[in-house]
Structures are given as C-alpha cells and as structure tokens.
Write a structure and sequence with these properties.
Helix content is 33%, strand content 21%. By secondary structure, the protein is α/β, with parallel strands linked by helices. Bound molecules: flavin-adenine dinucleotide. Flavin-adenine dinucleotide binds next to helix 1, strand 15 and helix 16.
Length: 501
Amino acid sequence: MRRVVIIGAGIGGLASALLLANAGLEVVVCEAGATPGGKLRHAVAGGVRIDAGPTVLTMLPVFQAIFASAGARLEDYVAVERLDVLARHAWEGVRSLDLFDDTARNVAAIGEFAGAKAALGYKAFAARSKKIYEILDGSFMQIAQPGLAGLVLRSGVSLMNISPFATLWGELGTYFANPRLRQLFGRYATYCGSSPFNAPATLMLIAHAEQRGVWRVQGGMFALARAFEAAAQARGVQFLYNAPVQDILIASGRACGVKLNNGEVLPADAVVANTELGALAGGLLGAAAQQAVAGSMKGAVRSFSAKTWAMTGSISGNFQPAHHNVFFSEDYPAEFAQLAAGQMPADPTVYLCAPEPGAFFALINAPANGDAPQVEAFPPCLTRVMKKLQDCGLRLTPTAVTAAQPRQFATMFPGSGGALYGRALTGWRDSFARPGTRTKLPGLFLAGGSVHPGPGLPMAAISGRLAASAVMDFCARSRTVVMPGGISTPSAMTGGRRAQL
Ligand SMILES: Cc1cc2nc3c(=O)[nH]c(=O)nc-3n(C[C@H](O)[C@H](O)[C@H](O)COP(=O)(O)OP(=O)(O)OC[C@H]3O[C@@H](n4cnc5c(N)ncnc54)[C@H](O)[C@@H]3O)c2cc1C
C-alpha cells in the first residue's frame, strides 16, 4: 500500500486525506496544532466556544461532492441550514440593507434602499457576476494548472467577459452610482484579503457564489473540520496532532517522507504540504522544499490579516443583528489607503457574526505585519469597533473577550506574516501566479488557500481534491523509494485502487 504524509489538517489537507484514504492509500496527517481545521477554528470566550475563523460557508456542493467522491454523505456528519438573509449591512445615520439569497428580493430591497435606477444596476450586476462565475467555475476553479491561455481555450470566451483588467471598484461604478452600494459589493475583494481599489473586477463572481447559498453549520463552523476528520478516520487516516513537521525529506531526487520536530521520521511515497506557501518558500520545511517552490512567491504582495474578537455579551439598540452583519466605514478609499500603508484604519469596516444569542465574533481587516517588531495594541482598536457598532445603532456590551491579531496569526500559520489569504490580488496576473498542486520536486504536492484556486474554504477544499488527484496519478506511475539509512516506505508499488475524483 502506498503511503502519503499530509502536512497540516487545514481544509485542503483534510479533503486530500479523505479522498486519498478512500482510494486505498495509507494516509498520515501531521498537524502542528491540537485539532483539525487550521484557520477553521474556534476560540473560547467566557466558557463559550465561538467560531473565530471562517464564518461564511458558501459553495456547499463543493464539500458535498468531495464527500460523495469518498462514498460518504456530508449530511451524515454535519447538519447545515441555508440562510435566507445573506448579510445585514449598516451605515451611520441610514437604514440598514439586507441581501437575500434571491435576486428578485434583492432587486426590491435595493430599489427601496436607493431607488429604481440602483435596482436596475443591481440586476445587471447580478447577471454579470453569474456569468463570470459560470465561466470560471469549469475553466479555472476546478482545473489543476490553469494558465491564462488555457482558460481562454477552455472557456471559449473573450477575456473581456471576465473583466480581469478593470478594478473591482472601477467596474462597480458602472453599475452603482450610490456610494454605499459600491462599498457593499466592493467588500467582496476582502474575501481574498485584497483591496477593491486594485483587485480585478473578476472578483464580482463572489457575489454570485453567495447568491447560490450561504449556510450555517449546526454546532458552529468548526463542526465542518470535525466532519472531515471523522469521515477520514473512518477510512483509516491516522491523525497526529501536536506534530509539527520540521523537514521534507528527499531521496533519489524526490520527496520520500518528513521529519517531525521531535526527530521522528515518517517515510512516504508522496507528501502533500497544506502549509502556507510562504513556509515552504521561506525554507521553514527544509532546503529541498524551498527549492521545489522557488520563484512561486515572485512579486507576491501579502493579503490582509485581521484583528478579531470572539465575545460573549449583551446587546441593545435599534439594530437587530442577523447571522452575518457588516458595519461600513464612512470613507472606503481612506480605509484601504491606510491598510495599504501598513496602518490600522482610523474608521474600520466591522464584520460581526452573531451565531447564537449572547455570542459574537467581530473582525476588521489589518495589515499583515505579524512578523514586524511592533504592532498596534488592542484596546484602542476594540474601542473603535464598539463605537462603529454604536454609531450604526447597536450597543454591544461584552462580558468576555478573546482577541487575536496579526502576530498570533503569524505564529499559528508560519510563513504567513499573519496574511490570511495567501497572496493579495493586486492585478489580473495574481490569480494565475498562484502555483498549482505539482512542484518542481517529484512527490511533493501543494494544497491550501495560498495555492490555486485560492483562499476561502471551498477553494482550499478544491485544492485538496486537486492534490489528491495528482498524488494518485503520481503513485500509479512511480516506484517506491528507499530512504537513506535503509528506512523504506511500507510496501512496494501496489498500484492502489484509484478513485474517480
Ligand atoms: C479570521 C478568518 C476569517 C475567515 N473567513 C472566511 C469565511 O468566512 N469564509 C471562507 O470560506 N473562508 C474564510 N477564511 C479563509 C479560510 O479560512 C481559509 O482560506 C482556509 O481555511 C484555508 O485552509 P487551508 O487548507 O489553506 O489550511 P489552513 O487553515 O491554513 O491550515 C493549515 C494547517 O497546517 C498546519 N501546519 C502549518 N505548518 C505545519 C507544519 N510545519 N507541520 C504540521 N502542521 C503544520 C497549521 O497548523 C494548520 O492547521 C477566513 C480565514 C480567517 C483566518
């Protein structure tokens, strides 16, 4: 039986592990932390477990399809519920605006909020974002190494149809004269840790991804990580927690295993790195791995980090929170100019999740300076956050707060500097600059939010599926190697069962 070691139990690593084990390979996942999920994590505040990583679950069919490929049903492991209100949006001194998972309801809501012309603008925008989503779903997101030329050939459409050359902010101006609507839809760039002022307009496809559904996970988002873990364990995957990998080992010019921090060596026919690309490129997993991804970070600008607060508390005021809420800054250009200059915004846009009564998770974007010697202290920031909520009609009185900032993210996700979404999208080239799953080192594969197709749970899960597919292909074609010192991988080539992915 072929053995694969996966470094990291983020969603990309978990998806790979599930699929590879189902295909008959022996899979060991080495995770530096104590639990699966990586960024998909919770924090404890006042004794309550509150999601403190991703909270917006989109593209559920991606996860269902991965489970189905492994002969399982996602719903047997975790309960999900579709939300009809995608998010509630607030500004100071004006009424709030809900977006729904139904375009017709949005047309009506936007018409009431900003008039008939804005409603027509939204209708055109929704149609355009749907078109871009549909073009890129099959020709980019699900494809292993999509170059620009390949994309054009596969989709058979002109590049102009996906607006890679305009900025999101600029393009939104052609649909929305209302600055608040432009701000609302421009915020989608931050889902990739990027600024709407230089990210390509292609990112408007995220609006359509949300239109296709946003789900709430019963028991919290972290239950999704546990679902993957349980399904993988049922297929024989071995999870080693508190097991950081120090080095990716090579023999005969290919990856042949890993060395843990405690000195233990795990031989393998293939290795999947679900770490930050920056960790490999920065040499944190050894010189061979560094060489394997040489050049892949060229020209990369870090995506945003965040300051986050998981809180218990009580609320009052005339703003009733939905599950997802956004409280916008008064001056979007100034906010992103400050972030670009490496500063915390004076007036930040605040995302607030209210998963259950009395529990909250707040997030603001922050520069990814978690490895810099000095970062801004917390208290003034939380004060600003609370003031923003209050100015929009929500008074939140916390009873317990657990905070995280770029410095913690940089430590939790080595090689990131605190950046949470890989490289930022600062122009059309960046989407194509992310490496695919294959590296220059045979037997070493990549999965996760910093490689193709990019960040976000569904995208990172797709990267895990692409990695599993490439590993199976590799194992079917190559022979087992003997490691230096005579430690061999568990068995000779057996040509293990291959699954349809
Ligand atoms: C605060 C926050 C909010 C977000 N909001 C959303 C959202 O609402 N919706 C959404 O879809 N996405 C969101 N994202 C993005 C999403 O969480 C990520 O894109 C995705 O989870 C990344 O998954 P990954 O596969 O790259 O693995 P990661 O989550 O990056 O996990 C990698 C794992 O590798 C481990 N590791 C690293 N180095 C080693 C080593 N040497 N040895 C062993 N293990 C190692 C780490 O401990 C970690 O567990 C958010 C992210 C954050 C942080």
